[in-house]
Design goal:
Helix content is 32%, strand content 20%. By secondary structure, it is an alpha/beta fold. α17 crosses α18 and α18 packs across α21. The N terminus is likely disordered.
Length: 646
């Protein structure tokens, strides 16, 4: 909203507020960003950078491995597997082998599928060298966002076929949302459904690749001490995570898969999906720190000079190459840390030059060869996608199905009968709610809220985030202040000039803000949550600041909040439930009867990112929030019955 878009009518207060997303619909593509005047994106970027932990100096060799062990345990326990049941983390490997694919030359291609988590099976292809099999080296090949073909992508097939002819067993599992798993049920950002339940959604990605490693390590033809890993883009992301955290990966070569979080703030193309920026990531680790955990194992980082997707070489070298070299030197392994800058073609690729670099690396580090294998092309190296289908069981679980299994028993503390809704229950419930949305975070305690009153204008500012600016025409004898909050304010939104009522039209505070250097709005929410904050908690604190300013300005007037969408309704209901915003009337619109409905109806994370606050459903649901909000008068919510219609 620009200054000229502000509504000027007698008795009307128009507020321009900003948030992380741009509203409904909650399914389909994320809406385009809506510019808002007065939003300080540089300030938001500074906030994020200040919360990105610097990489400490390389430790002395005597303590390096002990420190690395502790780091891996912390990342796994506090990030990857938090809230994850033991049956997921420690379950036994389940593999179903299929038929051999005919028509190959110099290798045998086998179909298989394995269970990543209970109910979710991953199709995969195993490329075995022809002839007698002994304890051979192996490579776990993983692909990224390559679209429909997935494991059938030609350059993936070419690499795996050539590795097999070079004597290396290669496994290529299907990645979520690709190939045979290209259904929307596996869309990456739907991991938010698990996060909402307090179960780490990134664990599904991690276990999908770790179980693939289990398949290789258990294979009779594979030497478990000589297993490598490589992949492009999202495959590079998989490669750094599994290689950093699982020492069974003896040599690794991620290709254009990651960069430090501080670099991503100014380059939206580098931000990626939720698994790449999981909630609380920066409270535990960052990508340069993950890269140090590769030492002293042989590692080849591949990046592309003119990458037309993400992670260009010029940004990567100062982020994850130069800072990591001292860690390898301190372990006496400087020669094991290699870097290749692809120039031909220099775009986002795993084409001939990058493949040849990996062949040489695998030859030296896995097979003990001379490091100069030649890529060949033979009939059968590239099969049609239809020939490579492995099949998945009917009803193969996606993110929503997995999350609904947990949601059935949530929240853990349900609303008691009215006769038992004691003050103690309310205090405990509010404490759990505040903790879930990080309402009392370090930011909240250090944040400074200031107000500036001018003629017909109020500006409420935060030291961490811009808050709100309000403008209005003069009105005498204000009896009621009605704050109308829009998820997305339509150009034709009706405005009332009811006598004696000061009307406020706007958006909730971080809703509708421009992206960081043009980035998608939901990605801002991801970045803020990665620092350990919660976008929902930020919104609630900012709403409190605005309401407090209006209360002080019109102490004798009644304060009403009218919400025009699910995001504003949720934030306002939580603000009232916490007892932080005292209002006389609250009107909610398009808010589901339960947060579980967001999962059942496959609501879009991109359209409502703040609602998928980690563990929120575990602690509380909409009925409990309504009970906590009493005695505030809450108008019946207007909703369509499904989150799709929000």
């Amino acid at each position: 909203m620009r200054a000229k878009d502000l509504v000027w009518l007698p008795g009307v207060l128009a507020i321009s507020l900003a948030s992380f997303a741009s509203g409904y619909p909650l399914t389909g593509p994320a809406p385009a960003p809506v510019p808002v005047s007065g939003v300080d994106t540089a300030g938001l970027s500074a906030f994020l950078r200040a919360r990105t932990p610097p990489l400490p100096p390389a430790p002395p060799p005597a303590v390096a491995e002990e420190r690395a062990v502790r780091q891996r345990e912390k990342i796994l326990d506090q990030l990857v597997f938090r809230g994850v049941p033991p049956a997921w983390r420690y379950g036994s490997l389940k593999v179903q082998w299929g038929e051999v694919v005919p028509g190959t030359d110099g290798f045998v291609l086998r179909r298989l599928r394995y269970e990543a988590v209970p109910g979710m099976w991953i199709p995969a292809l195993l490329y075995e060298p022809a002839g007698p099999l002994s304890r051979r080296p192996a490579v776990l090949n993983v692909n990224g966002h390559v679209g429909a073909p997935g494991k059938a992508t030609p350059y993936e097939q070419i690499r795996c076929a050539n590795l097999a002819r070079q004597g290396i067993v290669s496994l290529h599992p299907e990645w979520l949302a690709c190939g045979e798993l290209s259904s929307p049920e596996y869309a990456h950002n739907r991991l938010a459904y698990l996060d909402l339940c307090g179960v780490s959604g990134v664990s599904v990605f991690y276990l999908a690749m770790r179980r693939g490693l289990d398949v290789l390590a258990a294979h009779a033809a594979v030497d478990p001490n000589r297993i490598g890993m490589t992949g492009l883009s999202g495959g590079g992301w998989q490669t750094i995570w599994l290689s950093a955290l699982d020492l069974r990966i003896a040599a690794t070569a991620p290709n254009a898969g990651y960069v430090g979080m501080d670099v991503r703030y100014g380059h939206p193309g580098d931000i990626g999906d939720l698994e790449q920026c999981p909630q609380d990531l920066l409270t535990v680790t960052d990508y340069p720190a993950l890269t140090t955990l590769l030492a002293p194992r042989p590692s080849l980082l591949i990046y592309n000079q003119r990458d037309d997707c993400c992670f260009q070489t010029a940004r990567v070298i100062p982020s994850v190459v130069d800072p990591v070299r001292p860690y390898f030197r301190s372990r006496g392994a400087a020669d094991r840390f290699e870097f290749h800058n692809n120039i031909d073609p220099g775009t986002h690729n795993y084409d001939a030059d990058n493949r040849s670099q990996f062949y040489r690396f695998a030859s030296r580090r896995l097979t003990g060869g001379d490091g100069a294998p030649i890529e060949t092309s033979r009939p059968g190296d590239v099969q049609p996608e239809s020939a490579l289908k492995c099949g998945v069981p009917e009803g193969n679980a996606g993110f929503a199905e997995l999350a609904l299994r947990f949601a059935e028993s949530l929240p853990v503390h349900t609303r008691p009968d009215p006769a038992r809704m004691t003050g103690r229950w309310k205090r405990d419930a509010r404490k759990r709610l505040a903790s879930a949305i990080r309402y009392d975070s370090a930011l909240a305690h250090s944040d400074r809220i200031t107000e500036q009153w001018e003629t017909n204008r109020l500006t409420v500012r935060s030291s961490a985030f811009p808050v709100a600016q309000a403008e209005w025409a003069p009105i005498d004898r204000v009896r009621r202040v009605r704050l109308r909050l829009w998820d997305v304010r339509p150009a034709s939104a009706p405005v009332s000039d009811e006598p004696g009522t000061l009307m406020a039209d706007g958006r909730l505070l971080l809703r509708g803000a421009p992206g960081l250097a043009g980035g998608a709005l939901y990605q801002q929410a991801m970045l803020v949550a990665a620092t350990g904050e919660r976008p929902l908690g930020v919104q609630v604190r900012q709403l409190r600041a605005m309401c407090a300013a209006l209360r002080r300005a019109h102490a004798s007037a009644k304060l009403e909040i009218v919400c025009q969408g699910p995001a504003t309704s949720l934030a306002a209901l939580i603000a009232v439930s916490l007892g932080e915003v005292a209002v006389d009337r609250l009107e909610l619109n398009r808010l589901p009867e339960s947060l579980k409905q967001l999962i059942r109806d496959r609501a879009s994370f991109e359209a409502l990112p703040e609602a998928f606050c980690f563990g929120l459903l575990r602690e509380i649901d909409i009925p409990e929030l309504r009970a906590l909000a009493l005695p505030t008068r809450i108008e019946p919510a207007s909703h369509s019955g499904t989150a799709r219609g929000l």
